[in-house]
Amino acid sequence: MKKLLLVFFLSLSGLTYSQLVQIWNNDFDTPSDWDLTIQTGQNDSDANVWVISDEEGGETPPNCGVASNGDPTLHVSCQGAVCIGTGAIYNAGDNGLGFAPSTTNKRAALTVPISTVGETGLELVFDWIGVGQAGADFAELEYSTDGGTSWNVVWTQTPGNVCGGGQGEWAEQTVALPVAAENQADLRFAFHWRNDNDGSGTDPSFAVNNLRLFADDNGGAGPTADFTASSYDFCEGDCIDLTDASTGNGITSWSWTFNGASTASSTDQNPTNICYPTAGTYDIILEVTDADGTDQITQSVNVTTCGGGPTAAFTPSSTNLCEGDCISFTDNSTGNGITSWNWTFNGASTASSTDQNPTNICFPTAGTYDVTLEVTDADGTNQTTQSITVTTCSGNPPTAAFTIDTNLICAGDCISFTDQSTGDPDTWSWTFQGGTPNASSDQNPSNICFDTPGSYQITLTVTNDGGSDQTLTTIDVLDLPEIEGFGDTLIEIGGSAELEAVPANPGFIFWEPGESLDCDTCANVIASPVITTTYFPQVIGANGCIGRDTVIVAVDFEEIVEVPSAFSPNNDGVNDFLHVLGVGIVNMEFRIYNRFGQLVFESTEVEDGWDGTLNGEPLNQGLFVYTLTYDLVNGASGEKSGNITLVK
Q: Which of 155, 172, 366, 491 sits CB 3.0–4.6 Å from 141 for a disulfide?
């Protein structure tokens, strides 16, 4: 790689949480909490897909992206014949040629509601990587307060930073939520990905991790204690579970008192198996404490003397097993405080047991055998019997076999392996010569990366009780062609720079991103970015592999947004229209009011100007008030307001 000609200064700004408390978080450890398949528009046959996995592992900002580290993330990936690799990658499309159409409009939405009742000053903080294509292939953060029927955009992805080699650089993002998200019983978040199929775009696509929702501490109102019991009326000897339902500013302690129970107290948030041996009415007291104070609640349970005797029931871990196998038994009996369990195991090495849940009961000889359980409580005795079948099992070793994404890859590519072994193996041992990682015990390992050219041997050994078997194959890793990019520079907004790509050997040259270049397949190009952009000159070598380098064009952007204080709409051709003045405005809302507060003009387009009329009728000269909100191409935003004088 070349040496960069510029020195960049990184200014880090972090959140100060001293006035905030965390009220919710989601680290994508429970994928079932998210619906990844919501279509919001056209989706082609090779449309991008949302995935939750650690194929794009989460990293602490500003670390670089990694393939797999055990920390799952939500990320955009690709599908179809041209999709090679895993993680936050995507197919940018075929630009209408029809061989890999990938127009995408998909939402990944949280399906579990978040309560913000009583909460204000909400901020969502998350970690993310992504480049995509500005304004074309990008993700948006949305929120909903009506169960996902309607969604509101609160953040839009712009191309993020990348590390050397093209890996994304993780960044922390803070998004202040509007007042409409406060005091809601059903707040949800979603990430919405779009891809316009124009074939332009840069990996990584988009990945997000470590969602955290913060709120003001609301002046220290203190917690509100509450809980529910699994039952409030039950028999002597029965046990119940308690579920905390308290609310507050980060509750830190739970103090339970169980009058009349075998367990007198607990500091668990949700205590279980609280048993009451004697009939009566008893109070349960819960006291909770948070940073703002303490609260207490008392509820009663009613324990009665129940008759009728117990009902014996149990579940074996298996009812069909091989000679010499061992199983366990789980008691499911019910009754009025069961005091004894008597098991009989016909045909087993252990003839009997008085344990409630006996384990390691082994059957050495083939046959069908009865297992009997007899239980006793204060009201009587009951028994039940089940049969166990033991057979002579033959021990045949498995046959190892597997398939691979491809046997021919380029240096730096990652591939997956699919087990095709037969004979019911129960362990898999893979070795990947030259790979990262170099071994795995997964049945179907994925994201195995090969960085160095050469021929490497892949070995799979499978094992069951009958023995082991091994198979191997060879993959070839091709060298990447070399290319060097020149032209790192700093330009003013609206300016341009000359860039050059020099391959070591002839090959097809192309640049990404290409939308701000005069030619994205030329060796010498003119770049005219509106924001700081990293360009990737690339070359396809004779072996089909792609080599790349980087060239950075930094844009010195100065924020200038103004509204004239006066204009004269007298049709003399001079100053007849009032316009918002500025550079790099991408969105705006411009409104003008008369002295009575009546809206006389509004526009969302910089090109639209006010001609001093209302409903087609000229207004008299006078003083008017304007408000302006705007977003700039560099991601900055602002607000302005002031007076305008209409002069005749």
A: 155
> Quick check: helix, strand or coil at residue 422?
strand
Q: Are 87 and 75 in contact (CB under 8 A)?
A: yes
* Of the candidates 634, 636, 587, the residue with the CA atom closest to the CA atom of residue 493: 634
Number of helices (H), then strands (E), in the chain: 0, 56
* Model confidence pLDDT, tens digit, residues 512-554: 999 899 999 999 999 999 888 999 999 999 888 999 999 999 8
Q: What is the DSSP letter of 169?
A: B
Residue 630, CA distances (Å) to 590, 591, 598, 608 in order? 8, 12, 22, 15
The answer to whether the peptide bond before residue 62 is cis (omega within 30 degrees of 0) is: yes
Per-chain mean pLDDT for the chain: 89
Q: What is the pLDDT of residue 12?
A: 33
Q: Is the pLDDT of residue 3 over 70?
A: no
pLDDT at 557 over 80: no
pTM of the model: 0.38
Query: What would the DSSP string read from start to end of 303-366?
Result: EE---S--B--EEES-SEEETT-EE-EEE--BSSS--EEEEEETTSSS-EE--SS---EE--S-
Residue pair 476/434 in contact (Cβ under 8 Å)? The answer is: no
Token couple for 633? 């191409």
How far from chain centre, in Å, is Cα 294?
35
Residue 240, C-beta contacts closer than 8 angstroms, at least 6 positions apart: 229, 230, 231, 234, 274, 276, 301
Classify 165 as helix, strand or coil.
helix
Residue type, 133: Q
Contact at 8 Å (CB) between 96 and 197?
Answer: yes
Q: Who contacts 463 (Cβ-Cβ below 8 Å, separation ≥6)?
A: 397, 398, 425, 426, 427, 429
Residue 78 shares a structural domain with residue 196: yes
Run of H or E including 374: strand 367-377
Q: Are residues 128 and 262 in the same domain?
A: no
Inside any domain, residue 13: no
Q: How far apart are CA 109 and CA 37, in angstroms?
A: 9
pLDDT tens track for 250-288: 789 999 999 999 999 999 999 999 999 898 999 999 999
Cα(217)–Cα(152) distance, integer angstroms: 25
What is the arithmetic mean of pLDDT over 99-117? 93
Q: Which amino acid is at 453?
A: P
| Gap between the Cα atoms of 168 and 181, Å rounded | 31
Residues 32 and 162 in one domain: yes
**Number of separate domains in the chain:** 6
Q: Which residues are 26's β-sheet partners?
A: 211
User: Residue 142's beta-bridge partner residues?
Assistant: 153, 190
Confidence of residue 501 (pLDDT cuts 50, 70, 90): very high
Same domain as 344, residue 296? no
